[in-house]
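Q: I'm writing up a methods section and want to include an example of the input and output format. Could you take the sequence below and give the corresponding predicted structure tokens, formatted cleanly so I can copy it straight into the document?
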Amino acid sequence: PVSVSWGAGGLSMRSIVLDQRPDAAVYAIEVGRNAERVTPIRYSPSSAVVNRLTIEYAPNAATGAYTQSVTVTSSTDPDITTDSTLRPSPWATASQAVFGVRAQTVQTSWVYDSATAEAMALSMVRRMHAPSMMAAVRVGGEFGGARPGDWVRVTDSGVSWLDVGAFVESVSIDEGDSIVLGLRRYPALGNR
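A: Here is the clean output for your methods example:
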């Protein structure tokens, strides 16, 4: 994924690294000290859960047909020992035990090697294996440089977020001219 921003220099794009650690955060947000949570915690719908992901890649230049695929799934999948395109994931295993199998196929025309396709699939399942949590916080001017895609550390004792990682999903200005950051926290990311 990428973040696209408009600024004085025009459009700027940057990639969003999905597997960040809290110590790589751009900002440290602490509700009650330098931020105020302005929405309750909301969860993404369970229908958005993906725990068996197939990535089709390496398209044939002449036909456009994808020539390779890799699937990340539960370690208990009955085909895991006989199908060389299956990769086990502890996140997929735990998720399938709770939600059942939730499959999705993604096609990418810019990946041609199995290592990249497998890393993408593992990272995506890790992020999508459970509902994500979202909240908005009002912050001061010191957060004026925050952009969508920034990785931040968040402490909010009211919801047991203690130095956890989250992505800035949106940046807006409220009616009182305060900066409001929309945050999204993926359960498997940022608490290592």
